Amino acid sequence: MRAQLLDGRTTSKTMLDSVAVGAAEFLRTRGRAPVLATILVGDDPASHTYVRMKVNRCKQVGITSRRIDLTESTSTGDLVRVITELSSDPDVDGILLQHPVPPGVDERAAFEAINPAKDVDGVTRASFAAMAFSADGFSSATPGGIIALLDAYEIPLAGSRAVVVGRSAILGKPVGMLLLERDATVTFCHSKTGDLENHIREADIVVAAAGVPDLIKGDWIKLGAVVVDAGYVDNRGDVEFESAAARSAWITPVPGGVGPMTIATLLAQTLAAAEKRTIVK
Ligand SMILES: Nc1nc(=O)c2c([nH]1)NC[C@@H]1CN(c3ccc(C(=O)N[C@@H](CCC(=O)O)C(=O)O)cc3)C=[N+]21
């Protein structure tokens, strides 16, 4: 291996340390901790694990989590009602609806019920627009975490050729917008892209967000490129790690790369939402 690691574990720890300091100060000045509501619909075991990790991290940094678990048979209407209530609840600062929701539920409708001021996971249209226009608002957690990780290692983005593989509403599309806002030349590739290999071969920065383990072969990576692997199927990335690390300058490990940055971004944005919503007494 010749690449250096983009270490999400260490970088996220630094972020979480400062969230803990801010949350303690918030508690001292407002008389309560910041509050993140997490909503999980159905019983997908991986989703349970992710939500548990988020709740545990909240505890560690002094954020109160309010966990709401709903059954697989929850209707769109019921879910929207729950989220609408949290959106106007003065005691709730941030709302996370874990993706994916069960097949019968309209996930977009549920996301849009989140008050943009509490959209600390950056899943609403309002947050997407904020990312696209560098306006006030929250970043999608994984895309925001990716940019924070690249910034921590001072990876230059302006003028670089960035190839994003994947176009989901909360990962591929928004990470492309954030890279574009940082003056990268961005190409989106997806399942209908015929010549993925050729796009990857030209990329200075590869952001893999397809959720297809080992989709991207290590020998496609341009020498000296930066590889960010946001795949998370069974904790396996989208990029063949060993062969990609032999060619790239920087690479994220899976686990220990993008995953911990996602959670740190969520919690940092929860603190920021709490601070914005409240005035010091
Ligand atoms: N509304 C919504 N927002 C999300 O941000 C969101 C989501 N839905 N649905 C699922 C994906 C997945 N996701 C991960 C977060 C952390 C790790 C993570 O920290 N993983 C550890 C490994 C943990 C272990 O060892 O099991 C790591 O990569 O080092 C992974 C995956 C957030 N997601």
Automatic annotation (TrEMBL):
Pfam families linked: THF_DHG_CYH, THF_DHG_CYH_C
Gene3D superfamilies in the cross-refs: Leucine Dehydrogenase, chain A, domain 1 (3.40.50.10860), NAD(P)-binding Rossmann-like Domain (3.40.50.720)
Membrane-spanning intervals of the chain: none
Keyword Oxidoreductase annotated: yes
Pathway: One-carbon metabolism; tetrahydrofolate interconversion
Every Tetrahydrofolate dehydrogenase/cyclohydrolase catalytic domain range: 6-121
Enzyme Commission code: 1.5.1.5, 3.5.4.9
Example of a GO MF term: methenyltetrahydrofolate cyclohydrolase activity
Record GO cellular component, one term: cytosol
CDD domains listed in its UniProt record: NAD_bind_m-THF_DH_Cyclohyd (cd01080)
Alphabetical keyword list: Amino-acid biosynthesis, Histidine biosynthesis, Hydrolase, Methionine biosynthesis, Multifunctional enzyme, NADP, One-carbon metabolism, Oxidoreductase, Purine biosynthesis
Sites where the protein binds NADP(+): G166, R167, S168
Catalyzed reactions: (6R)-5,10-methylene-5,6,7,8-tetrahydrofolate + NADP(+) = (6R)-5,10-methenyltetrahydrofolate + NADPH; (6R)-5,10-methenyltetrahydrofolate + H2O = (6R)-10-formyltetrahydrofolate + H(+)
InterPro entries: Aminoacid_DH-like_N_sf, NAD(P)-bd_dom_sf, THF_DH/CycHdrlase, THF_DH/CycHdrlase_cat_dom, THF_DH/CycHdrlase_CS, THF_DH/CycHdrlase_NAD-bd_dom
Record-annotated Tetrahydrofolate dehydrogenase/cyclohydrolase NAD(P)-binding domain positions: 140-277
PROSITE patterns given in the database record: THF_DHG_CYH_2
Coiled-coil stretches noted in the UniProt entry, renumbered to this chain: none
Gene Ontology biological-process entries: L-histidine biosynthetic process; methionine biosynthetic process; purine nucleotide biosynthetic process; tetrahydrofolate interconversion
Function: Catalyzes the oxidation of 5,10-methylenetetrahydrofolate to 5,10-methenyltetrahydrofolate and then the hydrolysis of 5,10-methenyltetrahydrofolate to 10-formyltetrahydrofolate.
Similarity field: Belongs to the tetrahydrofolate dehydrogenase/cyclohydrolase family.
Subunit relationships: Homodimer.
Protein name in UniProt: Bifunctional protein FolD
Organism: Rhodococcoides trifolii
